[in-house]
């Protein structure tokens, strides 16, 4: 007979004593439980003791978290948090260096626990840490433990970062700026500054002033990968907290220092594999850089701006240079206006008498004009060839340069997500972005020539403009999905994907659709579905058994703490626990926490999850909402909260958990996988029917014969 819900069987250890096996009554006050345990070992003053997990993070057991204790848990009797806080508060003030160092080391470890942290902070413990940093000159082990303890204590959000003194902050900054400092201290200092920057404008300005971009670039060039990562994290925090003008200045300076080329050569193409955290920071750096185009993209052309009109006129003058050399006095004003209108029409403007009207649409706004001017100035031969070639074509077959440029700029903005906020979890960046300073403009130069090439391949007319741009969008999207490492490689691949190749790809898709829409085939699909859905269920459960590494994300920043979750091979228990960076697939025995599948009540996703309700509802958290899910267990009182690293993992985990709960798999990935499996199975089944048309209706069954005398009588043959 299973034990009642309010009773868990656990073991309690103590150094030098035989462990106790007890049945913990969850309704019984924790103080009474401790008294019973202490009495069993003849220990006086039970109030000086506490229980904590023996494995994993060794969290203290409190009334608020005691329900997380599972059957079979191993606890340890230890000094209570308030006693430990008192002892360590005294220890870190000791004149004995060894005692002080050991106390700080233990403080750094215990500060991860919220109960202990609360006790230590309530005794004004942070003030002592401030003093050690501000007044000490030590840059060794003691300082490393001090900074680690400070970081862990601040992680619990009991104290505002704005309460820090300028002296303390400048001391932290000095460790970043010093050369002869241990890398572990510099890593912790960079991490502290990274946490500090987003919390207030004053702290941002102070850190930006004290830690120069040159210093951060020096750390980025370090051979220590962790130091490099922390330097990148601080750089990203500064960029995200800056105003648009400050961000532009910072990016201009980083461009002068060839940051992109360094990243392309020494980080992306390093011999070491790129970690998830660095991939995320590179994605953010790419997004921040591309979003510098947002202002121009959303700004319409002002027909009264002389600067913008000059840019527009430069397009005409560059294209029709020889014709523009005719002296101004040779033509009347009316004739000159007519000539300009004719030239703007050849350039492909819809409104040739007032071309500024074409650029009033925002987006793409002035960004389209910038791209056209960049193309004309940096590749004048290609620009002139594009315009003059189309000027000599028949009216209906000319490819309009200006109209194409405006639409192409809009397409590139949509594909590259310009103007959209950075995701908190995304890691998708384009390696070729870091190999080129003027990436967006250079990409435009390649793609506008692609438009002309595709236009000729399609033998398009003005009426086909939208069709051509759809093909170009598909060419760009398909090529970018291959993640080319340089713009030259992109150019080669996108030009190889010509219109005939696109037609072949489309025809293959169309034939596949037509083939699978025949009535008999649809009936066969329905018969195959249950078997293939069972295959998908097994794959989902197998993925849960392999487990996944999840990251803890707070509302303040993207955190670097990791935890792992996996399903037991018998599909009865979910095991999870914190792990260190670099651990790929920890054994199931090393994960101390457990949730029996039988105790799981329901699955929550997106906005329904408790950990998304705690976060702000801004646009920047949209991606987190799409990746969040929670398991409700134990009478709907407790939740295990997840934020999947990718949408793929989200789909596999939510599907797997729904299978464990006996529910239907609802993710979009289920339908995709089912379609792929059905397609493969149908192709195999219909292999013998290739080039044979399948009728919509089965052939009629013939009537039975009037007699069966045509049957051969074997009995007579044997005689």
From TrEMBL:
Record's signal peptide: none
Biological process terms in GO annotation: actin filament organization; apoptotic process; cell motility; phagocytosis
Domain ELMO: 307-480
GO molecular function: SH3 domain binding
InterPro entries from the UniProt entry: ARM-like, ARM-type_fold, ELMO_ARM, ELMO_dom, ELMO_domain-containing, PH-like_dom_sf, PH_domain
Keywords annotated in UniProt: Apoptosis, Phagocytosis, SH3-binding
Top-level lineage group: Eukaryota
Function field: Involved in cytoskeletal rearrangements required for phagocytosis of apoptotic cells and cell motility. Acts in association with DOCK1 and CRK. Was initially proposed to be required in complex with DOCK1 to activate Rac Rho small GTPases. May enhance the guanine nucleotide exchange factor (GEF) activity of DOCK1.
Name recorded for this polypeptide: ELMO3 protein
């Amino acid at each position: 007979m299973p034990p009642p819900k309010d009773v868990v069987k656990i073991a309690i250890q103590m150094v030098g004593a035989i462990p106790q096996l007890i049945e913990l009554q969850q309704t019984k006050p924790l103080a009474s439980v401790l008294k019973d345990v202490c009495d069993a070992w003849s220990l006086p003053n039970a109030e000086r003791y506490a229980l904590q997990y023996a494995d994993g993070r060794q969290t203290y057991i409190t009334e608020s978290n005691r329900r997380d204790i599972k059957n079979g848990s191993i606890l340890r009797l230890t000094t209570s948090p308030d006693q430990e806080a008192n002892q360590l508060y005294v220890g870190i003030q000791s004149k004995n260096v060894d005692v002080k160092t050991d106390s700080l080391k233990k403080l750094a470890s215990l500060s991860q626990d919220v109960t202990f942290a609360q006790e230590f902070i309530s005794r004004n413990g942070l003030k002592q840490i401030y003093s050690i940093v501000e007044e000490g000159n030590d840059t060794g082990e003691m300082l490393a433990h001090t900074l680690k303890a400070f970081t862990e204590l601040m992680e619990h959000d009991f104290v505002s970062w704005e309460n820090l003194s300028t002296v303390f902050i400048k001391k932290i900054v000095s460790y970043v700026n010093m050369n002869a400092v241990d890398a572990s201290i510099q890593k912790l200092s960079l991490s502290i500054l990274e946490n500090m920057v987003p919390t207030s404008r004053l702290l941002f300005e102070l850190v930006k002033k004290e830690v120069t971009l040159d210093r951060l670039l020096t750390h980025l060039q370090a051979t220590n990968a962790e130091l490099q990562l922390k330097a990148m994290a601080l750089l990203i925090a500064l960029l995200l907290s800056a105003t648009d003008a400050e961000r532009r200045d910072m990016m201009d300076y980083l461009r002068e220092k060839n940051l992109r080329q360094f990243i392309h050569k020494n980080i992306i193409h390093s011999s070491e594999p790129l970690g998830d955290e660095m991939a995320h920071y590179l994605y953010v750096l790419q997004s921040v850089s591309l979003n510098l185009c947002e202002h121009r993209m959303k700004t319409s052309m002002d027909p009264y701006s002389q600067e913008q009109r000059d840019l527009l006129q430069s397009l005409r003058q560059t294209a029709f240079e020889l014709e523009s050399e005719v002296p101004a006095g040779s033509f009347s004003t009316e004739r000159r206006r007519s000539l300009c209108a004719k030239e703007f029409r050849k350039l492909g403007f819809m409104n040739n008498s007032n071309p500024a009207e074409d650029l009033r649409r925002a987006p793409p706004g002035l960004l389209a004009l910038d791209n056209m001017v960049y193309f004309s100035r940096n590749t004048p031969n290609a620009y002139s060839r594009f315009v003059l070639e189309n000027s000599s074509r028949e009216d209906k077959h000319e490819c309009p340069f200006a109209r194409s440029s405006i639409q192409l700029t809009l397409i590139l903005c949509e594909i590259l997500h310009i103007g959209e906020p950075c995701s908190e979890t995304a890691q998708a960046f384009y390696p070729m972005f870091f190999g080129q300073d003027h990436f967006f403009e250079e990409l435009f130069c390649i793609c506008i020539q692609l438009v002309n090439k595709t236009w000729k391949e399609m033998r398009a007319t003005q009426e086909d403009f939208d069709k051509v741009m759809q093909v170009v969008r598909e060419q760009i999207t398909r090529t970018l999905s291959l993640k080319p490492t340089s713009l030259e490689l992109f150019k080669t691949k996108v030009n190889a994907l010509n219109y005939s190749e696109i037609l072949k790809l489309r025809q293959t898709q169309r034939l596949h659709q037509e083939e699978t829409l025949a009535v008999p085939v649809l009936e066969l699909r329905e018969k195959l579905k249950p078997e293939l859905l069972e295959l998908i269920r097994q794959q989902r459960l197998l993925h849960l058994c392999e487990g996944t590494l999840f990251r803890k994300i707070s509302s303040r920043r993207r955190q670097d703490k990791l935890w792992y979750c996996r399903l037991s091979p018998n599909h009865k228990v979910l095991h999870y626990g914190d792990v260190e960076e670099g651990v790929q697939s920890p054994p199931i025995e090393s994960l101390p926490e457990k949730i029996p599948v039988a105790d799981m009540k329901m699955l929550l996703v997106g906005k329904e999850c408790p950990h998304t309700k705690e976060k702000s509802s801004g646009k920047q958290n949209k991606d987190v909402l799409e990746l969040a899910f929670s398991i409700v267990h134990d009478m709907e009182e407790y939740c295990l909260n997840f934020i999947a690293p990718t949408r793929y993992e989200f789909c596999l985990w939510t599907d797997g958990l729904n299978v464990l709960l006996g529910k239907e798999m609802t993710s979009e990935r289920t339908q995709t996988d089912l379609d792929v499996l059905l397609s493969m199975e149908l192709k195999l089944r219909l292999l013998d029917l290739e080039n044979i048309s399948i009728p919509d209706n089965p052939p009629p069954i013939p009537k039975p014969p009037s007699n069966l005398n045509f049957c051969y009588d074997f009995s007579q043959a044997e005689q």
